[in-house]
Write a structure and sequence with these properties.
With about 450 residues, the chain is mainly alpha-helical. It is built from 23 helices and two strands. About 10% of the residues are buried. Keywords: Electron transport, Heme, Iron, Membrane, Metal-binding, Signal, Transmembrane, Transmembrane helix, Transport.
Length: about 450
C-alpha cells in the first residue's frame, strides 16, 4: 500500500510537470524579438488590439486554447496555413471562413519555430512602450525656452520703459526749442528778412520750375517702372502653399518612408499631366495603416493629429474600419491645386521625365555650388525638394524666361534610348553645325521654337 501511494505521488508530480511544460512552450520566446518580427511580417494584416485584414492577435494563444487547440496548432497555421486547411483541419477552415476567405501568407522556411515562439510571446506579453526620448527632450527644451522667453520679455519691458522716458525728454526739449524760435520770429530784424523770402509753394515752384519739372518727370518714370514690374509678376506664385482639406506631409511619405514620387503620380511618366492621386491610391496603404506610429513629428503636431487625418480619409472614401469594408458612402475631396500652367502653354511631363530625365538632373546639379542642393530625382528640378516639405509649396517662378533659361543650359543626352532613336538622322547635322564634341543644348533641337509650347 505504501509503495502504491509513493508511486501515485510521483505520477502526479510528473503529470504536473508535463502539463506546466506544455502550457509554457510558447512562453519560451523573447517578446522584444517577437515585436520586431511582428512588425516586419504581421502588421500589414494584423494588430494586437483590433481587426485589420485579419483578426486581432492580442492573447491569441489563450483564444486558441479556449477553442480546444494548442500551441502546436498555431505553429502549423503560421508556418503553412494552406497545407493545414488542405489537410481538412476543421478549425483552420473555420478561421478562413470567418475572415472573408482571405488567405494568410505562408511563412514556411521564412520563420523558424523559435521565431514563431517569439511572436506568440509578444502577442501574449507585449513589452511596454518606453517613453520617447524625443518627448522628454522636447519638454526640457520647452521649459528652457519658457525661461528664456520670460527673461527676454522682462528685458523688452525695461527697454520699452527707457525708450518712453527718452521720447518724453526729446519732446520736452523740442517744446523748448519751438518756444525759442517763436520769440526770435517776433523780433523786428527777422520780420524785415522774411519779407524778402519766398513764403508760398506756388512762388517757390515759379522760381525753381525747371527743378520741379525734372522731379515730376523722374516720379513718372519710377511709377511707369513700378507698373511694368507689377505686370511682369502677374501669375507668378513662387512660395504659394495653400492649406488642403486633408493634411498630407510629403516629408513623411516621400522623405521618411522613401515612397517613390511616381507610385502616386504615375501620370508624370506616361502622360502629359501629373495627376492628383485618387483616394483609392491612398487606401492601397492606409487600408492597413489606420494610425500613425512614425518617429517623425512636425513641431506643433502630435501622432494623434496625423491619425485624425487618416480617419478623415476613411470618412471621404466610406471605409468602415471595424468591418474592414466600404460602405458605399463617399465624399469628394476638394484639393487646392498648386501647380497650374496657363491654358495657352503646352507642357508634357512624360517628355521631360522619359527623354530628359538624366540630362535635367546633370544640368541642375552642375549649377549647384553646395552639394546639399543637388538632386537625385528629376521631379525636384522643377518642384523643389518635395521630400522635405510638410506643406507643398511652389518652389520656382515657372515663368517663360525660367523655362527658356533651362533649355539654353541643359545639354541633350544623345545616348538616351528615346533621343538616340528619334534624332538618329539629326546627329550628323548637329555635329557639323556645332562641331565635333560641342555641347548640344535643348535650344539646338527646337527648344526655343514658339510652336513647341504655344499652339
Amino acid at each position: 500500500m505504501i509503495s502504491w501511494r509513493k508511486h501515485y505521488k510521483k505520477g502526479l508530480i510528473a503529470i504536473g510537470l508535463l502539463l506546466s511544460t506544455g502550457a509554457s512552450v510558447y512562453a519560451q520566446g523573447d517578446p522584444k524579438k517577437g515585436q520586431e518580427l511582428f512588425k516586419a511580417n504581421c502588421t500589414a494584416c494584423h494588430a494586437l488590439d483590433k481587426k485589420v485584414v485579419g483578426p486581432a492577435l492580442g492573447g491569441v494563444v489563450e483564444k486558441v486554447k479556449k477553442d480546444g487547440q494548442d500551441v502546436d496548432w498555431l505553429h502549423k497555421w503560421i508556418s503553412n496555413n494552406e497545407k493545414l486547411r488542405a489537410s481538412g483541419d476543421a478549425y483552420a477552415n473555420k478561421i478562413y471562413e470567418e475572415n472573408g476567405k482571405v488567405a494568410m501568407q505562408v511563412f514556411e522556411g521564412k520563420l523558424s519555430d523559435q521565431d514563431i515562439d517569439d511572436i506568440l510571446e509578444y502577442t501574449t506579453n507585449p513589452p511596454k512602450e518606453e517613453p520617447a526620448a524625443e518627448a522628454e527632450g522636447a519638454t526640457a527644451v520647452d521649459t528652457t525656452a519658457s525661461i528664456e522667453a520670460a527673461k527676454a520679455q522682462q528685458l523688452n519691458s525695461k527697454i520699452m520703459i527707457a525708450a518712453l522716458i527718452a521720447i518724453a525728454g526729446l519732446l520736452f526739449w523740442l517744446l523748448l526749442k519751438i518756444r525759442q524760435l517763436v520769440k526770435i520770429q517776433q523780433s523786428p530784424e527777422l520780420s524785415e528778412l522774411n519779407s524778402t523770402r519766398v513764403v508760398s509753394f506756388s512762388a517757390l515752384y515759379e522760381k525753381y520750375s525747371f527743378v520741379g519739372k525734372g522731379i515730376v518727370g523722374l516720379l513718372a518714370l519710377f511709377a511707369a517702372y513700378g507698373v511694368w514690374n507689377w505686370l511682369m509678376w502677374v501669375g507668378v506664385y513662387k512660395g504659394y502653399a495653400p492649406e488642403q482639406p486633408i493634411y498630407f506631409s510629403h516629408k513623411i511619405h516621400a522623405g521618411e518612408n522613401k515612397i517613390d514620387c511616381q507610385l502616386c503620380h504615375s501620370g508624370a511618366k506616361y502622360g502629359k499631366v501629373s495627376e492628383i492621386p485618387s483616394l483609392n491610391v491612398c487606401m492601397n496603404c492606409h487600408r492597413s495603416i489606420s494610425e500613425y506610429k512614425g518617429k517623425y513629428i512636425e513641431p506643433g503636431k502630435d501622432r494623434e493629429f496625423y491619425t485624425s487625418q487618416i480617419k478623415t480619409l476613411y470618412a471621404h472614401v466610406g471605409w468602415d474600419e471595424s468591418k474592414q469594408a466600404y460602405t458605399g458612402k463617399t465624399e469628394p475631396v476638394e484639393w487646392t491645386r498648386i501647380h497650374n500652367m496657363p491654358d495657352f502653354v503646352y507642357f508634357n511631363h512624360s517628355q521631360h521625365v522619359v527623354a530628359g530625365e538624366q540630362a535635367i538632373i546633370n544640368s541642375f546639379n552642375a549649377k549647384q555650388k553646395d552639394a546639399s542642393n543637388k538632386i537625385d530625382v528629376v521631379c525636384k528640378a522643377c518642384h523643389g525638394k518635395i521630400d522635405t516639405m510638410n506643406v507643398v509649396q511652389m518652389a520656382n517662378n515657372f515663368t517663360m524666361g525660367w523655362c527658356i533659361d533651362c533649355h539654353r543650359t541643359t545639354e541633350v543626352d544623345m545616348n538616351n534610348g528615346y533621343n538616340k532613336e528619334y534624332f538618329k538622322n539629326l546627329h550628323d547635322k548637329l555635329k557639323k553645325q556645332y562641331g565635333e564634341g560641342s555641347k548640344i543644348t535643348v535650344d539646338a533641337i527646337g527648344g526655343l521654337e514658339c510652336g513647341k509650347c504655344h499652339y
